[in-house]
Design goal:
This protein is an all-alpha fold and 335 residues long. It contains 14 helices and no strands.
Length: 335
């Protein structure tokens, strides 16, 4: 069946598929509990132990994966439009690394009672992401344009710098504060408290809502700054509104799960092939497909080597790394 590009039918079918992926992700795990047990618990049956595993552990984790996937995919689509670069991604550009550094500094210097704050770490991660973008856009505005290679090299340098500073804090700081830092840097998807899940979901909803409200502006910005200005877009203000919203949702994701790479690269390209370049359809498609993608990757991370869990960032990197190389080769050949 052919779905009209950008049509509501296509988005509805994508939403049904994503819901199915989320249900399957809740139904699989190291314990033998499965889909029938989930249905039984949702119907009001089942023992307390099964309910705790499926709802408080698996469901919370899958919902977090969905929110993180929606955030990273939406941010990737926004960065690609603003930078007019198909290789833009929160991880590749170093924005995720900057957010991770901000979150790490917050853990290092804040009082012990404030470490578990549902908003403190996301705010610090947001500031780290914005600082990274200031450097990146400083390069991007040099003489009005920049080459793809320069952006990628800048992202590599920023990621290396952020990783070095994070390792310094981990090595010199209190070990009790930085337990699980290695897994965090590789994208650790845990089962968050419901309050933390609500905060990251709220921040993501705000950021994605801002991007959605600027979907038409993104369409014009993707044509180029000069063309957008001629069409009446306040380029400077609109650009920063978009990048700050994208940074907010990137920071919210990174603050709770660490660095999950390449989601913002793979999903927008796949959805653009199906729904076209119009961001009024592309952004919701990216949010839905991103949620399903990270939920599926997390389910694979939990089950491939069960009872040992892989960081979800390993799964996304194994898929996204070759995908990025193919896109880069195409880009270099075209230029």
């Amino acid at each position: 069946m052919t779905v009209r590009r950008g049509g509501p039918v296509g988005l509805a079918l994508l939403a049904v598929l994503a819901l199915a992926v989320l249900i399957v992700a809740v139904s699989v795990g190291a314990s033998p509990l499965g889909f029938r047990d989930l249905l039984s618990i949702l119907a009001g049956h089942g023992d307390a132990s099964s309910r705790a595993i499926l709802l408080d552990v698996r469901l919370a984790r899958v919902l977090l994966a969905g929110v993180v996937g929606a955030a990273l995919a939406s941010a990737g689509a926004a960065y690609q439009a603003v930078l007019r670069n198909p290789l833009a991604d929160p991880f590749i550009l170093g924005v995720s690394g900057g957010a991770a550094l901000g979150a790490t500094i917050f853990v290092a210097v804040s009082p012990t009672s404030a470490i578990g704050s549902p908003l403190g770490r996301p705010l610090a991660a947001f500031l780290g992401a914005v600082a990274t973008l200031v450097v990146l856009f400083g390069l991007a505005r040099f003489r009005g344009r920049t080459a793809t290679t320069a952006l990628l090299l800048t992202g590599v340098v920023l990621n290396a710098f952020d990783s070095a500073i994070i390792q310094f804090f981990v090595t010199a700081g209190d070990p009790a504060r930085f337990q699980g830092t290695l897994a965090y840097l590789m994208g650790a998807m845990g089962s968050p408290p419901w309050g933390a899940l609500a905060s990251v979901a709220a921040l993501t909803a705000i950021g994605v809502g801002i991007l959605g409200a600027n979907a038409h502006t993104l369409n014009l910005l993707s044509l180029g700054a000069e063309e957008a200005g001629q069409l009446g877009v306040p380029v400077e203000r609109s650009t920063w509104v978009v990048v700050l919203a994208a940074s907010l949702i990137t920071a919210a994701a990174v603050a709770f799960t660490g660095i999950v790479g390449f989601v913002g690269l793979i999903v927008p390209h796949a959805m653009r092939a199906v729904f076209g370049p119009d961001h009024r359809a592309l952004l919701p498609a990216c949010a839905i497909a991103g949620a399903a993608t990270v939920a599926a990757a997390d389910a694979a991370a939990r089950t491939l080597l069960a009872p040992v869990e892989l960081p979800v960032g390993v799964i996304t990197a194994v898929i996204g790394g070759p995908f990025f190389l193919v896109l880069l080769l195409r880009r270099l050949r075209a230029s």
